[in-house]
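Changelog note: in this version the structure field was regenerated for every chain. One regenerated record is shown below for reference.
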Amino acid sequence: MIVNDTITPELERIKAEFEKLKEMKLHIGIQGGNGFGAGGEGREGAPADILTIANVHEFGATIHAKNVKNLAIPIAKKAVGKSPLDFPGLFFLRSENGYLFGCISLNRKGKEPKVKSSPSDTTPKDRKPGNKKIPTKKDDIEFLFILMESVNIPERSFIRAGYDSNEQAIEDIVSTMISHVVFDGWDAESVMDHIGMKIVGLIQEYMNQPFNFKNKGNITKATSNWPDNPLIETGRLRNSVTYRIEKG
C-alpha cells in the first residue's frame, strides 16, 4: 500500500509563505513613490503640494508670511487661488476690531480709496479671526482677503488617528488574511495586497467623517465647497492615500 504524503508539502508551503511575510513591510499613507489605492489600482506618487498639505494636517503647523509682511487669506470664493495683485483697484480697509482686509469696489475701480490704508497700520493684539462672522460686502465694497502675519493650522491626524481608531478591525483583517494562507493556498504577496487595500479604505472612510476632526474656522468655511469637513475639499488628499509593499 502506497500512502501519498500531501501534508508535508503543504506545511512546507505555509512555512515558506510565512517566512516571506516576515520579510515584508507595508507602507500606508501619503507617499512620494508609486503605490496602490483601495481598489488595488496603481497610483503615481503624491505631488509635493499634497505631501506638504498632508504633513500640515497630520501634525499641525504655524504658517508665517515670507518676503511680505502679511499672508493674504481668501475670504471670498472668487479670491481662492489668487493674490491681491490679481485684482486691479484692490484697496485695504481696517475694521473696528483692527483686522486688515483687501477689498474691491465698482465705485472705486481705478481710483485711490477715499481713506488710505496699508498693511503697516496697527494690527490687533490678542484677538483671533474666526470668532466673528467674516464680512462679504458692505454697501459697494466687497471683501476678498484678510491679511495676517501668521495662521495656525490645528493638528488633524488622519493616518495615525485613523489607524488607532481601526486597530481592532485591522487585527481582524490580518487574522483573516493569515487564514487564507493556511486554508486557501494564498501567497504572501496576495495577502499583503489585500491588507493594504483594506487599510487604505479604512483610512479614507475615517477622513470622510467630519466629527473625527477639529472644525474649520469661519474664514475657511467661507470659501469651502465642503465647509463641514476639514479634510475634504477636492478629494485629492483622500485619494492620495496609498499602500506600498516593501519586500525583503
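Spot check on this record: The chain has a mean pLDDT of 88. Helices lie at 7-22, 48-59, 160-165, 167-184, 188-208, 218-222, 236-239.
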